[in-house]
Amino acid sequence: MSEFDYDLFVIGAGSGGVRASRIAASHGARVAVAEEYRVGGTCVIRGCVPKKLLVYGAHFAEDIHDARKFGWNVPDCKFDWPVLRDNVLAEVDRLEGLYGQTLDNHKVTVLRTRATVAGPQKVRLADGTELTAERILIATGGWPHVPEFPGSEHAITSNEVFHLETLPKRIIIAGGGYIANEFAGIFNEFGSKVTIVNRGDTILRGYDEQIRDRLLQISMTKGIDFKFNAPFESIEKNDDGSLTVMLEGYEPMQADAVLLAAGRAPNSRGIGLEEVGVELDDKGAITVDERNQSSVPSIFAVGDVTDRIQLTPVAIREGQAFADTFYGGKPTVVDYQNVPSAVFSHPPIGAVGMTEAEARNKLGSVRVYTSDFRAMKNVLAGRNERALYKMIVNAATDQVVGLHMIGPDAPEILQAAAVAVKAGLTKADFDNTVALHPSMAEELVLLK
Ligand code: NDP
Question: Nearest 5°: CA angle at 211, between 208 and 214?
């Protein structure tokens, strides 16, 4: 008999925690996972999944419009927010059920309660029960960062945005990153007046500059307003429920909702980590080594709470690697090179590898190929919206070191192309591949 109640106790049943629990259990470990909110975590419950469904919902606005050019006699259509919201939330419920079932099928004990760390090998549940485990895995994810200013309590974050009672006629979105640009596209297509307010003058820092500029230009053409270098001063709630937003250097603005999308902070405070000596960095992220081990040898962490790359598939890889390493006899280290990413803006962005600026800094001599084109469908639809594909090549080796795309279905195309970049293929390999015509993706093998 083991001296511990469990071999592994996982705190947090999000993407990383569920994967680690399930795989460790399938390797024969006795596993418990505690979740204080809902099984599935940010991605399933209030992130990637419901967001993507809203993106699909939003895109119908353009499809309905364009359909008329393709001969369809489409009557005036009205969008009904509560219908979409409730259908999306029902789908989230269904997925949450499936996640729970998967854990049950793998004989993982699911404790639907808050758990905190009470010792290097001990956890405490909300009712005071203490349980021991040989290893503890922290997979508590992140939490929206709410900048401090008077009236910030009148704003919502991505946690609440999926539950809005009514569609705001005017929405101000603070931030210039993923969430800001994705929800700007969503609300704009639904007919809200959208203003993005950013503290700096750059959207989507980290993405290739030309791609970012293209999104900015298309977003403005679609009617989204941008205010740059505009830190929030305050929000006041008016008698009619509307909000007055004061920005530094700008006239006051009126809105029906304010969405704060100013990054996500690791969810590491108040769960007993510092008390047992787990080292956190200055942002509160748990410091771990490549085996996901913290400064306390029996405590590990995966996913957003470690703030390595805040993406679901990365958390899943980390959870899998942890379980395979410690319970499957297969030591695995996650490879963070060439992780593809996407922004589900309107139109979406997909990227993998180095931006042009990064490649010039790191490699010196690079070749850059671009294709700036209007998708066939957009031409017939009379939609003056150009896609941009960009390939960055190491001039010394001919290896493709970066691919950056904005345009219809860019994330779908990029995922497949990322295999080639990850495999280290060269520009000549792309050129040797016959085009698939007519497609947008064929641009990738026709770059001159
Ligand atoms: P991002 O990190 O993408 O963007 C944060 C934005 O907020 C930046 O424009 C940043 O400005 C600004 N900002 C940061 N701090 C402050 C502050 N104190 N006051 C005002 N503005 C501030 O974060 P998001 O919240 O959009 O998303 C969180 C994370 O979730 C992302 O980093 C991403 O990893 C993940 N995510 C991924 C998605 C996807 O894969 N498609 C979709 C949604 C989220 P500055 O540039 O000046 O720092």
Answer: 150
For residues 434 and 118, what is the distance between their CA atoms, to the nearest angstrom? 60
Is-catalytic flag, 437? Answer: yes
The C-alpha atoms of residue 16 and residue 39 are separated, in whole angstroms, by 11
CATH architecture, domain defined by 6-144+265-327: 3-Layer(bba) Sandwich (3.50)
List the catalytic residue out of 106, 346, 404, 437: 437
Please report the pLDDT score of residue 1 as a whole number: 73
CATH class of 347-445: alpha beta
Per-residue pLDDT tens over the stretch 316-375: 999 999 999 999 999 999 999 999 999 999 999 999 999 999 999 999 999 999 999 999
Q: Do domains 152-262 and 347-445 have the same CATH topology?
A: no
Site to substitute for ligand 1 among 48, 178, 346, most atoms within 8 A of C-beta: 178
3-state secondary structure of 72: coil
Instruction: Write down the domain spans for the chain.
Output: 6-144+265-327, 152-262, 347-445
Whole-prediction pTM value?
0.97
